[in-house]
Write a structure and sequence with these properties.
Elements (H helix, E strand, L loop, with lengths): L7 H8 L6 E6 L5 H9 L6 E5 L3 H8 L3 H8 L4 E5 L7 H11 L4 E6 L2 H8 L7 E6 L13 H6 L1 H7 L3 H4 L3 H15 L2 H7 L4 H13 L7 H8 L3 H13 L3 E4 L15 E4 L2 H8 L11 H20 L4 E6 L5 E8 L2 E7 L10 H6 L4 E5 L4 H5 L2
Parallel strand pairs: 1-4, 1-5, 2-3, 3-4, 10-11
Antiparallel strand pairs: 6-7, 8-9, 9-10
């Protein structure tokens, strides 16, 4: 069951209302985009309008690029939400017409994947739109429902089942069913439809391989060989999975040392529950052999949500040498490097000498179960 959680992104979007920009909201399916848009819409009462663009009559009305016809359809509304806007033919031109002809109407357009709506709207909306991305719930947002002790007790569940809104507060026996249904039926629908992919099995196998390699360097060549497809096809599929908000890449940091890894990425999942569902591994943390990788994925994804909530945009990397000396996570902002090592248990760990010598003004911190809230904004 869902709880009433106010998303951190709501305040950021509300700050940009009625400033001459169309607001575009992206995010994976069932991540809470409709709920968020309706929360923004609620204070406007009769001055707000929610439209589901999957409905044929809505698509037809918005496809008519004639100002008077659009005005009659929208009425005298101040705020209009277009959900699943990518289903409207020529949505980019329609949004451009609305922005240019009715600048006092605030439009929020929602798409379940960035490639669908972006490809249909990017060029016409140049300079006219701001984009926002909604992720699964954050560990910090759970603080609206749980106190500190309760949330910490919920950590094992979060690591196993993730933070999709329908799942984060569900009983454990329901969480697995909901999660498996989401990961098998809905989450990849956009990728399969967009590319008209005939080999859904290849996409699933790719996801399984990526799930098993969380925290490791990813070789597109090795993936291509395992799947018996080409390197460019692997790259294309991973790019589409990124744009559908299933996975994201973390690049290597490489500046000073010849021995630094400079090409291969790490690939993480936006939600640890989705990752576990793909490989059907739901064991409690104390029984897992992959707890280090799962903990790393959780922290990198939660840090991403934290940075979004703060409005910070540092460069994000990992660091590794050919001698396999590594640091899990590095942020670079205005020339300052902050390095972090992730440990499930609180164990002593020192900054690698090669990194300290190459980047003497950097900081280094170990993130573990006893202090992770400060890293992710708990």
């Amino acid at each position: 069951m869902q709880k009433n959680v106010q998303r951190h992104l709501q305040a950021q979007m509300e700050r940009w209302l009625f400033k001459g920009k169309i607001l575009i909201l992206y995010g994976a399916r069932q991540v809470g985009k409709t709920t968020l848009s309706k929360a923004i819409l609620e204070p406007f009462g009769d001055d707000g309008l929610y439209l589901n663009c999957e409905i044929q009559s809505v698509q037809s009305a918005l496809s008519v690029r004639e100002p008077l016809a659009l005005q009659r359809f929208l009425g005298n509304k101040k705020l209009v939400v277009l959900d699943e806007a990518q289903y409207v033919p020529g949505i980019g031109e329609t949004l451009k017409l609305l922005a240019d002809t009715f600048p006092t109407i605030q439009i929020i357009a929602i798409g379940s994947s960035s490639f669908e709506l972006a490809n249909r709207s990017a060029e016409p909306l140049t300079g006219r739109a701001l984009t926002f991305e909604l992720y699964p719930l954050s560990y910090t947002e759970l603080g609206q429902v749980f106190n500190t002790a309760e949330r910490r007790a919920h950590l094992d569940f979060v690591l196993r089942y993730g933070l999709y809104p329908d799942i984060a507060f569900a009983p454990e026996e329901d969480a697995r069913t909901l999660l498996d249904n989401l990961s098998s039926r809905y989450l990849y629908k956009d990728v399969l439809e967009f590319e008209n992919l005939k080999r859904a099995d290849v996409l699933l196998r790719l996801l399984q391989l990526l799930a098993l390699q969380v925290g490791q360097l990813v070789s597109y060549h090795e993936l291509a060989n395992a799947l018996k497809i080409s390197n460019p096809t692997v790259e294309r599929y991973i790019d589409l999975l990124e744009k559908a908000f299933v996975v994201f890449r973390l690049p290597p940091f490489s500046r000073n040392l010849r021995s630094e890894i400079g090409k291969k990425n790490k690939i993480f999942f936006y939600d640890t529950g989705i990752r576990n569902s793909i490989i059907q591994q739901y064991q409690p943390m104390d029984l897992r052999t992959d707890k280090g990788a799962l903990w790393e994925n959780f922290l990198v994804a939660e840090r991403l949500k934290r940075l979004q909530a703060l409005g910070w945009r540092p460069n994000r990397y990992f660091w590794r040498t050919h001698e396999q000396v590594e640091i899990d996570y590095v942020e670079e902002c205005e020339g300052q490097l902050n390095a972090f090592e992730f440990k499930w248990q609180d164990k002593a760990s020192r900054v690698p000498t090669a990194f300290a010598n190459a980047y003497p003004n950097s900081t280094f911190e170990v993130v573990h179960q006893d202090n992770f809230e400060s890293f992710i904004g708990g």
